[in-house]
Every structure is written in structure tokens, then in C-alpha cells.
Amino acid sequence: MSATSAPKLPGSMGNSLNFLKRILLPLIILSVAHLAASQETQHKSQPHGLEHLLPQLSHRGNHQLELQKEESRAEYRIIIAWILCFIAASVSSAGGVGGGSLYLPILNLVAGLDLKSSTSHSAFMVTAGSLSNVLYNIFFASPGPGGKTLINYEICLLSEPCMLLGVSIGVVCNIMFPEWLITALFAAFLASSTYKTCSAGFKFWRLETEEVRRGEAFRLERGGNEVDEKGMEEPFLGGGEGGGLRVPWKDLVVLLMIWLCFFVLHVLLGDKAGKGVVNIKPCGVAYWLITLSQVPFAIVFTAYILYDKKKKRLQPQSQQDIDGKDIAAETRMEALPMFVFPSAALFTGVLGGLFGIGGGLLINPVLLQIGIPPQITAATTTFIVLFSASMSMVQYVILGMKGIGRASIYAAVSFVASALGLAIIEKAIQKSGRVSIIVFMVSMVMVLSTVSITCFGAIDVWRQYTTGSYMGFKPPC
């Protein structure tokens, strides 16, 4: 054996070394090379990732700014809606109407509420405004002739049952009639009522002007030294000094019973989707029995009120309770047929349910056309609206209305604005001696309501037409 010859390894070890040289070593080299190449690629692409990160951060910042701007716009819209609702409540309260036809467009278009929320919020606002108006007329307003309150509870008693029944009938007609027909009927009726109300306002204005001239002539005849205040009184201006607060508690109890009976029936029936306290199948036997039971309720209550009124007419009344202009007002009312107020209330209730607005905007011009003095008409209409609007409000609450806190804020705005508007209009009447201002305020509300609700309805009709929706008559269920 030579010194340079290497020792031979065993066969298995030689095979292992050959395996490492031929298979594993190239794999290790390729893995290292791939790792280096990937690190170099990652290092090269890192500046490119930063270029994408900066636009993303900028986009997020712009999105946050847009959200903040949208929240600011929403706050401004709410503030503007409060201001407009305050003005609408003041004007409506002065005219003795609920104002729901003015609240709906404001809440929907300005405040951004959907139509369902706008309707429920409007019920809160009308209730609060009517309550403020009624409390003011009872406790703070100047009393009418003989120290009586301006609210005519007899008209309220005769009107309330048939009006609530008419609303139920009108709601069924609202479901059945197409939108275009409802809009056309509403525009035609309210335009006609606006014209007649304006005519009545000018008539009252002429009567007041003649009365002022007669008073001025009477003062000149007496030498201008003495002023006969009675000669300066306007024919429809209540000016008697107080005989204390007179609240007919019996009439209030009857009105509350009427309210409770119809309220229970409405809660059992639920809303249009059949949602109520008790699960009653819409258009089932129980549904129609409850619906039709409103007819005998209205007939029984109205018959009782008419009988009680007839009995009171037969009783002698002391001369100190009725005198002066109160005799003229009572004579005009007594000369009317006994069924005129229930019939008028049923008619206005049907129209109110059909058009989806409160009855105040409809019954007010009807009472003016009958011949009821404007101040009594405004106070009495508000008292009637309080019962119908409160029924809708409580029903919304029981059926799970959302946003009660927000609706309460709008209601508080309406409450304050109604009292303020009524105080301002009373001061204006006392200063000018013209109660025709009330009639012109009603006319203004009716004009605004005609424009707003008609435009609202026209938009819905156009949307139905463009989307190809069915525009014919529908079944009641």
C-alpha cells in the first residue's frame, strides 16, 4: 500500500456522499438562491406599497370629513325643521286647525324623516298644539259673552262620535281608492273650501267695518265726550267680563267615554298591516265585526246627546245666563236642524280619513259656513281635534312607535308655539277689533296645505306611473 492512496470507505457511506453531492446539494443551492431573490423582490416592492398606502389614508380622511359634513348638514336641517314647525304651529293654532298638513312636508322634506315617521311625529305635534290651545282658551283667553268659554261643548258632543266613525270609513276608502283620485279630490275640495273661507272672511270684515262706523257715528252724536263701549263691540267679538271658569264636567265625561270606546276598537283592529294588541286576521270575521260595531256606537252616543240637548231646550233658562250677543249666537245655533252637526262631522271625518289629514282643516270651514262665529269656531275645532289626534298618538305608542323622544321634542316645540300664536292673535283682535283675522289665518293655512299636500300626492302619482305600479281601485284588504 502506498502512502498516497486514500483509505476506501465502506459502500453504504460512499453511496450517501454521492446522494448528497448529486441531489441534496443542488436543492440547497436552489433554495438559498430563491430566498435571496424573494428578499430582493420584497425590498424592491416596498416603496410601491407605500405609494398605495398614502392614497388609502387620504381616502379615509376624506371619508371622515364627508361624514362630519353630513352630520353638520343633518343638524342644520333639524334646526330649520324646528323653526318651520314653530311657525306652522303658531299660524295653525291662531286659525284653530291642527296643522298636520303643514307638519308632514316639513318633517319629510326638511328633517329627512320617512313618511311613516313623519305621520307619527305629526300626530304628537297636533296633539300637543291642540292641548296647548285648549288650555289657553279655558284658563287664559278672554271669556265670551256672559263670561262663557269660547269652546262650544255642545258642538263637540254632537260632532265627535260621527267624526270618529267618518274617519274609519275614510281610512277604508283611502285603501281602496287610487292615489291619483285621492289627490284630485283633495285638491278640488280644499280649493273650493279655501275660496268659500276667504269669502266668509271678507264678509266678516265688511260687517266689522259697518259696526265700527256705527259706533263712530254714535260717538259723534253724543258730542264725542262719551264713548259707549257696547256700541264699539264687534258683532262676533266676545267681550263679556268674567263669570268664573265654567267647565261642563258632564259633557267632558261623555266625550271621554266616546274617546275610550273608539280607542279600544282602533287598538283591537291595529294598523293597516294588522298589527294590534290582539292578533286579529285582517278582513276576517272578527275584523269586520269590530269595524262595523263603530256604527251602533256612533248612533247610540249621538242619539243620547240629541235627547239630552232637546231636554235642556225645554228647561227655562235664567236671563242672566244669556243676554246681548249671546242671545243672537244661541238663536242662530238653535235655528239650525238638530242633525246638521253630526252630518257635517261625518262628512269631514270621511274626508279626513280619505285624505290622511286631521279633521280640523276640514270642519273649520264647514262651521264657518254654517254661521258659527270665528272665535267659537277656532276654539271648538281645536277641542275636537284634540280628541282625534290624541287617539292616533296613543295608538302609535301602544303599537311600538320608534323615536318617541324625538317626537316629544317636536311636540314641545308645537306646544309652546301654539300658545304663543294664540296669545298674539288675541292681542291683535283686541287691538284691531276684527275677528276676521282668524278667518284669514285659516285661509292661509288652507292655501299652504293645498299646495303642499297636492304636490306631495302628485309626486307619489308620478312615481307610481314611472315604475309601472297598479293605479286602479284596490280591495279593502
UniProtKB/TrEMBL annotation:
Residues 1-38 form the signal peptide. Its main location: membrane. Keywords: Membrane, Signal, Transmembrane, Transmembrane helix. The chain crosses the membrane at residues 79-111, 163-190, 252-269, 285-307, 339-363, 375-398, 407-425, 437-462. It is found in: Membrane. InterPro entries: TM_pro_TauE-like (IPR002781). One of its GO terms (biological process) is protein ubiquitination. GO terms for cellular component: Cul4A-RING E3 ubiquitin ligase complex; membrane. Belongs to the 4-toluene sulfonate uptake permease (TSUP) (TC 2.A.102) family. This is Sulfite exporter TauE/SafE family protein 5. It comes from Elaeis guineensis var. tenera (Oil palm). The lineage of its organism: Eukaryota, Viridiplantae, Streptophyta, Embryophyta, Tracheophyta.
